[in-house]
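Following up on my earlier thread - several people asked me to post the actual chain instead of describing it. Fair enough. Here it is, all 455 residues.
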Amino acid sequence: MDYDLLVIGGGAAGISAARTAARRGARAVLVQAGPVGGDCTFVGCVPSKTLIESAAQGADFSTAMTRVHTAISQLAATESADVLRGEGIDVAEGWARLIAADRVQVDSRQLRAPRLVIATGASPLVPPIAGLGALDILTNENVFAQSEQPESLIVIGGGAIGVELAQAFARLGTSVTVIEAANRILPREEPEASAIITAALARDGVRVLSGRKVTDASPDPIGVRVGLDNGTDIHGSRVLVAIGRQASTADLGLDAARVELDGRGFIRTDEHLRTNVAGIWAAGDIAGRVQFTHAAEEMGRVAANNALGRVGYRRFRDRWIPGVTYTAPEVARVGLTEGAAAALGARVAYLPTSEVDRAITADRTEGYVKLIVGPRRGTRSLAGGRLLGATVVAARAGEMIYGPTLAMRSHMFPARLALTTQAYPTWSLAIQQAAVQLFTEIGGRRARPAEPDPT
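Reply from S.P.:
Thanks for posting it. Predicted structure:
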């Protein structure tokens, strides 16, 4: 049977693409090896946030893991193969391999469609460190399947996944050490945010070693030994690798369709998520852009709509996608950091959460709100110009970033953020209070010129 759209991959991007096609009345088939749902449901967002919440609530390891698997089962049931079939989407279970630009082999079957969306995702990257491959390492793909709590844990990588799991395991009672090659954890975020999270981890008993590279690893009597570039050894029961992701392109047959990859091994796409091959789009982590579930869902919609549309193309804009690190406090950002915007003549409105009434009532005052604005073409700084980015570090930062994200995506004048009344006392009121600084002094604070990151 031929289809209008063939989707390879049953994670967030693939499900979104298939559902978009079905809503348009197109005949769609989704090909997936294994259960539908993808990383987010089984080994990503759902289990990690359940573990984080359980640890924050004082649960023990066994209870936390039970909650993890309950949450996975509950959410997986909303996007199973049977659910998708009930929505009018065919699901072909098996491994898909391209044999032409419009045709894939799935086990003994061939499926054909004039339009394809590749959404096979990514997997944990394990670095070529001497001896590491011989160890029974943990990654996000297997850490939630553990039945025994490690007494001590070495985390290689201080990005979002590394620091989230480090804090959660520390709160569950594991002794945790984080090793980060950059000079600070969360190196993609603002230096001040990194400093706040480093201090927060320290309060939970996590040892952070920044600016250190792992040179080798080996088993030892208590579990594992990790050697560092300064000659010291770190010992622990288990080692968790969280240094990044690599594209899941193995055995897809991309060569047969002549689909190009970028220098990191991800599928090369333009802003419309088209590949170099007519009729083939890529969405989600495999496209090598921002690797978040919410980004993958939007990419799936964009790719499917563009594949099936007859006029015009929708664009996927990375700069409008917010990201959140779910530590305590949370770190949320959309758009540029202050350091990145300094060369653009940007201004910064800054409000520490110690001056936010809701934070004071909750006794959770560490963090800040930062809004970054620049001149708008034609009207310059009228009504605040345009919002270039925002960073929020706060207990509810992931919820608070919605307002700045909406402002950026809708090309809203920052004055709207300052003039829109927020309920008192809420965390989101801090966004309004910061935005007011763009126009007048409030609480002794006024917007200032953006400054580059310290060297």
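The longest helix spans residues 61-76. That should answer part of your original question.
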